[in-house]
Amino acid sequence: MDACIPQDRAPRDFCVKFPEEIRHDNLAGQLWFGAECLAAGSIIMNRELESMAMRPLAKELTRSLEDVRGALRDQALRDLNTYTEKMRDALRHFDVLFAEFELSYVSAMVPVKSPREYYVQQEVIVLFCETVERALDFGYLTQDMIDDYEPALMFTIPRLAIV
Questions:
Q1: Same domain, residue pair 143 and 97
Q2: Each residue of 110-147: pLDDT tens digit?
Q3: CB-based contact 34:61 (threshold 8 Å)
């Protein structure tokens, strides 16, 4: 796909929301195994509702791979140096489905923050930064307390933010 449709790849920006231990080289293989298992009727342990919700996507993903294999087989019999539009379309469709399945599957396995949760977290961070800045201005805190990671700050900053 990197050679055939490098500019048409599905966006994978959501991967930054995955926990660090999830992002590794063989994630794609694990996802593919999960898709095949779900398409065959298996259920993810303790995730029955998520499994049933992902099953149609997993089936469509496996069908899409068959389309890609067929396009590649046809292409291999013709000319290996060019990519037909049929093959590009099949790869684009597969890539979009795989990205969608990746987000769904990983979100079912580990907690992945929604855009709303990220927004709320950013708001809290800004609130705490503004609170520290104002507390320094009013003399409630000293720069030394912040530099020394004073334990009392862990309780003071949220309380000041509420006030």
A1: no
A2: 877 777 887 888 888 888 888 888 888 988 878 888 78
A3: no
